[in-house]
Amino acid sequence: MDFDVERTGHDYCSVPEASAVDMVLHENEELTREIEDLRKQLDQTKITLRFGLQRFAGSDEDIRFYTRFATYNHLMAFWELIEPAMHRMIRVTNSKVTKEAGNTRALPAIDEFFLFMMHLALGLKQKDLGHRFHVHQATVSRIITTWANFLYFVLGSVCIWMPKERVRAHLPEEFHLFRDTQVILDCTEIRCQTPSSLLLQSEVFSNYKSHCTFKALIGMAPHGAITFVSGLYAGSISDRELFKQSGIINLLTPGMAIMVDKGFLIDSLVPCKIHRPVFLTKEKQMLPHEVTHTQSVARLRVHVERLIRRVKEHKLFDAVIPLSISGSINQLFTVACLLVNYQCGPLVKAWSH
User: Fold this and answer.
1) Tell me: the pLDDT tens digits for 90-139?
2) Domains present along the chain, CATH in parentheses
3) Who's near 53: CB < 8 A, 6+ residues apart?
């Protein structure tokens, strides 16, 4: 049966005009773009709300504050160095150790590293870090211990002691009077909680600091890189005995010289020359050349003190170290020392050339 189109008012066989089709397609494209924009905004909001490294990737100032790395690019360059070794990471879980597995992380690996660096750089408590990263305090503790051990062995496997030829090649002009200097040495101490045992108190009490401390020996090449870090010892140990036990004597040869403070009475222990300030006694006054020598050594030794200050800019060492983390403090301190070679620029700007 035929129907009159004019009578029914609609032609079911007609094709919509091209302009109407284009309008629908245009609206679909706009909706698609809007959905994509909303997804990007949602992803950005998630990043902003989630406390992790990516949240601060655009601010080098924040990266320096939270990690002590100079820039985000510096941090990521370091990450690229250690990431290939992560398959060998041994994780601490519930007071046990297990080899790295696929889905054992509460946080992405990069954020675990960020959490560890915040603990080291800012000295934030585990409970605070747990609230920031939305994980349990026990999980924070395991992450810190895992990364302290991992970085201790990864960075410790890199030989930081330099052959004397390389030291000479990078020798700053300021050392022209001491061109044979291989390393500048100094001791440093970090305060620790007073043990309840009187015997332990006597071992870790430092007369110099009038507090219980751990003590370490740090060596710096003349151009400003850390080239030696000893383990931590009880604060009562003398500089001479710490030098003797640290193992650095085995690295020294007759063609080298070391630069130390006048408190290092180690002449009989080393096979090499020693540059140190001249002792001032009551019986005699310094000769003019002795005054000049002492001033020259003091001007150069100050750089190792500045380097140690960089290590202690990791705020974890500002507070008294609780005995509860004494099992990992050696790893934490060594990692902080070794990280200085990656985090910062040269001690003296002119030495970068």
Assistant:
1) 888 765 555 555 456 789 999 999 999 999 999 999 999 999 999 999 99
2) 53-156 (no CATH), 164-352 (3.30.420)
3) 75, 110, 111, 113, 114
